[in-house]
Amino acid sequence: MEIIQAVRWTDDGSGVRIIDQRLLPERCAICELRTLDDVIDAIRTLAVRGAPAIGIAGAMGLVVSLMPYASADRAALVAKAHAAADAIRTTRPTAVNLPWAIGRILGRLENTPGDARAVLDAIREEATAILDEDRAMCRRIGEHGTTLLRDGARVLTHCNAGALATGGIGTALAPVYVAVERGLHVEVYVDETRPMLQGSRLTAWELGRAGIPVTVLTDGMAASLMRGGHVDLCLVGADRIAANGDVANKIGTYGLAIVARHHDVPFVVAAPTSTLDPETPTGFDIAIEQRSADEVRRVEGMLTAPATVCVYNPAFDVTPAALVSAIVTDRGVRRPPYDFRARPASEH
Question: Which residue out of 134, 239, 277, 330 is catalytically annotated?
Answer without folding.
Answer: 239
